[in-house]
Amino acid sequence: MNSERKAVIFDMDGVLIDSERAHQQAEIGALALHGLRVTVKDLKPYAGANRDAFRIGIDKQFGVKLDWDAVYEEKDKRLFQMFEEVNTLPGVIDLLRDLKSAGLKLAIATSSTKAQLDFIVHKFGFDSLFDEMVCTIDITRSKPDPEIFLVASERLGVESGECVVIEDSLNGLLAAKAAGMTVIAITSTFRREELINADLIIDSFDELSVEMLQNLKEEQVISGGVRR
Question: 88-101 as b/e, with b when 16 or more CB fall inside 10 Å?
Fold first, then answer.
């Protein structure tokens, strides 16, 4: 049986907010402006990764060496315009309130920049719901390295085995698993079959309750990680 659940750690993009498409479109536009045409398929392996991992990966994948300061300046300009239109995923605010009321500690662990995190926290009032927030300035290694989740659990004062992580990306799922945490994957970005190693896969937050989260046990996980 798993340890008692004491904390839930949420990724931000694609989990709390519907922003993965905004990131992709901002990246595609910024890279095109600097002479590199990429597709959403090209970008998918970097979902959940931080800027350093993305920069290194793109340069290697396409055999280029771009002016990344300029690329990211353009990306941010486009992204923050699109952030005006993003919303929270349906059901996530109610779940956060329920988890908070049940006494669980809550954290955000995102590969986004501090400026992006601050914008979203302010827009949706997340500061009243979360106990800790971890982003790129707090870590040295990108997902799928577990560092970001280990930092989050340490700040919460909770053991890794007592944490549940909610993620949408394969890199995030692998990072949380490497940290020794239970992982719930939501299919907002990747297909169900791509998230097969999660302990539970959901299509929306309407499928998830505090009781289900607290009682999720290994014997309930069947068919390669999909609880039915």
Answer: bbeebbebbeebbe
Residues 99-154 have pLDDT tens digits of: 999 999 999 999 999 999 999 999 999 999 999 999 999 999 999 999 999 999 99
Specify the residue for token string 């500061």.
127
| pTM for the full predicted model | 0.91
3-state secondary structure of 211: helix
11 is catalytic: yes
**Sole residue written with tokens 């049986």:** 1
DSSP summary character for residue 13: B
Kindly list the domain boundaries of the chain, sorted by start residue: 7-17+87-220, 20-83
Question: E strand or H helix at 132, and its extent?
Answer: strand 132-134
Question: So what's the architecture of 7-17+87-220 in CATH?
Answer: 3-Layer(aba) Sandwich (3.40)
The active-site residue, picked from 11, 13, 42, 168, is: 11
